[in-house]
Amino acid sequence: MRLGHGRPLPAVAAVLLAGALLASCSSNGGVQSNAPVASAQKEAEPSSSNDDKTPIKLNWFVALDWYKRDWNPGVNLMDKQLLDDLGIEINFTSGSPDKLSAMIATGDIPDLITLESNTPQRAILEKSGYILPMDDLLAKHAPEFNVPDSIQNWFRAEDGHYYGLPSYFKAPESMKPDNFLPTHTTMRVRHDLLTQLGIDPASFGTKNGTLGALRKVRDAKLKYNGFDVVPAYFTYEHLVQFFGAKREDDQGRYVDSFREPESLETFQFLNQLYREGLMPQDALTLTRPQVQEKVNGGGVFMYTNWLVKWNALVSQDPAAYYVPAGPIQGDSGKPFHLTPSTVSGWTLTMAGKSTKHEARIAKMLEYYGQDEKSIEVQYGPKGIAWDYDAEGHVKFSKERVEDYAKDADAAALKYAGFDWFTNWMPIQSAFPVPETAFDKWEAETEKYFSQYSYNTMPFEAIKPEGGTDLAAIEIKIADYRKSMEAKMVLAKSPEDVKRLFDSMTEQEEKLGYGELYAYWNEQFVATKEKLGMKFAWPGNGT
């Protein structure tokens, strides 16, 4: 979940001010202003292993089935650094959340577990007795480790403890004037092909302009390195934000944007793209790495999703770079409000209660909790991969630059760390001054789209607790919607799209939607109240 480079804009000042309102929150996102803090009241016990570098191996399960990483200090410099500095080796394994459920059922919990923070298994783990309270662990073995209050309070469970540390949490205590809330909701277009076809970049500000530009690409039957160039790979979750689907009404109640008119507009637009041969059917099935492979092969003119990178393409062809386009405005002309990468973080890492290495785990958490360590995880070890320039920006070493120019994939294996504790704010503050086309346009794209992002913490607090009837209802509705999305995009006409869209309401009610919505709204309103926010949707209340 890494983002690129960018600089703060005045337009996001309101976002930063809203972020400063963050306060204490419970494990499901609700705030507890008077939550018990048992660990904070304990007398900190000094660590008995401050300088212990005796080699140990930690077993670490990551509940993301796509995650594959071999521990290799002989090749990876960040692995070597951890081994040299703390004497720790890692045995990574990974699998689906269902595999994690099986581990919980048997009580077979490894030293460390990382899962997405909104995964239902999180609440089960917190109540299982198999996980160490993080506050107690750190108070005992790393008492000087300063975990931001906003993190502790957001993840605090009903028993007063918090049980994990997040990655990419946008803690207001960590925000500096040069920080802003980055978003994955972006749209990019190949500059060389744009120029070749004489397309006006301003075309992408409207649906009709975008359609006209993509028809030019289709009709030109472009090929690149033997690949047919696909006009577009667009996704629903990005376009529905461009078109302005609201998420809160003017009374401050939660709005399910999937049911908004702009959602129907999005599906009809995607359907038109498909019917006109401007977007292939596999846009519904390809994984992000598969789309990225097509992008880096030179076979995609335009796409959404920040996480799809194109550095391998431009390293082979310097003219084949992507620039920001749009956003596409919807029929209603509503202003853009884009969801940032989660303000409350991405993953949560927990320590198993049966571990024999409590002190070493605590020291490792403290080690990765340093601001500069997040920068190293992103770019490689300081002094080898980079150092600061006179202005405090990262300046890459000649060796790192040459390694990436020679073989970007091999260089990533050499320099990239595991980012399960990454704090994006210090990375953002130290962004390198762009020197390559990739760095420049990653910076410009992030900077451009992030001007529309806003504080979404109340929206991140509504997920039902894992293992409950509501959680099961939410899963059923999500699966149903995914199947209907495909039917709507592949429908034969816009009228068929509307018929399918209108039919969903009745079926969702049968699945328990009314009960689920009531919970969503209750959590949303309660979280806003305790954050001191009357409205969360930009423009409401003004």
Main sheet summary: 5 strands, mixed
CATH homology superfamily of the largest domain: Periplasmic binding protein-like II
- CATH C-level class of the largest domain is Alpha Beta
- Give the name of the CATH architecture of the largest domain: 3-Layer(aba) Sandwich
Number of DSSP strands? 13
Structural class, please?
alpha/beta
Average pLDDT over all residues: 89
Q: How large is the radius of gyration?
A: 24 Å
Strand arrangement, largest sheet? 2-1-3-11-4
**Poorly predicted runs:** 1-49
Brief sketch in words of this structure:
By secondary structure, the protein is of the alpha/beta class. 41% of the residues lie in helices and 10% in strands.
Word description of this protein:
The protein is α/β, with parallel strands linked by helices. The protein has 2 domains: 220 residues, D-Maltodextrin-Binding Protein, domain 2 (3-Layer(aba) Sandwich); 235 residues, Periplasmic binding protein-like II (D-Maltodextrin-Binding Protein, domain 2). Helices cover 41% and strands 10% of the residues. The strands form 4 sheets. A 5-stranded mixed β-sheet has the order 2-1-3-11-4. A 4-stranded mixed β-sheet has the order 8-9-5-10. Strands 6-7 form a two-stranded antiparallel ribbon.
